[in-house]
Request: fold
Amino acid sequence: MRIPRTTDEITPEWLTDALRAGGRLGDGRVDSVEFERIGVGLGFASLVARGSVEYTGDSAGAPQTLVAKLPSGHAETDALVTRMGLADREVRFFRELGADVGVPVPESYYADSDLKTGDFVLLLEDLSGARLGDQVNGCSPGDAELVVRNLARLHARWWDSDRLRRMDWLPNPAEPDASRRMRETYRSAWDRVSVTFGSAYPDGVYEIADRFSACYEEIMRPLGESPITLIHGDCRLGNLFFRDNGGDAEVVSIDWQLASFSRGATDLAYFFLISFPVEERREREVSLLRLYHATLTEIGISDYSYGQLSADYRRGMFRFLNISVVATANLDLDSEGGRVILDAVIPRLAGLADWDCGALIPD
Reply:
């Protein structure tokens, strides 16, 4: 099947074929589908739209609404997504893992991608009945604890898994070629960002960011060494839905383009830095780190100390630095989502100075 690049190309005929290929539609046909764009201003690197679907014939079990994910239409962003294989990674995530990942994710109806052209399409469960995390106003204590426990369950499920190591479509920070490519991407992005936005970086962080490019592989390599696990990679409130599941609150994670394997603490560093204002993060991060460690222990991960977790958390902050710099250099900063990076994300990099991450960089 061809891959549509816009919602206009998701015609009733194409959607009928896609839902049948995904096992979601029997003898019925899609009569009409109407899309409205959603997620504008939330920093997504893709176009996300909700479709309302009407059928003729037998449509038992077919979705009445769905979410389509497609290229953003912004040339620089789409080029970055293609160059880094992000969309193809998410397509493979839903094709090969999906409901088997161990934590709640949207149901997938159809997924396809083309690495050469950068075209991709995902048709996913509509989560509009759940509550989306508030990226602007931040994270309540209860929601933060739910997210931390959810991350612990994800990481414990894949803790040092042999199956994980066979998934060659997931990047590994310890793999030399992948690490070299990421270093080059970071260095190119930092050359642009440092000139334009360098003055916005918190005290002590500009120097860390500037020195990082020279020893990227040495800093990041340990994150790809045992004990590794599957990480979400972009665990922020705009990618998290909260819903009731039979009386129990649960977190549903969307946007798996940055999934990889690494030390689990990198997800925590990313979530804490991006989700909390600086002072709030300083007040809460240790108690949340201890909650994560206690949850791992409850699940059965007994050979990982709190000291190891703290060391991994500190090193994991470099991954957040890397992503924030590359995003700043490539996202559409004229959009609301792009401006969030300057207004919120860059100041929150103060965590690298708080944890003296510069001491990890060799002289």
Remarks:
- The chain has a mean pLDDT of 92.
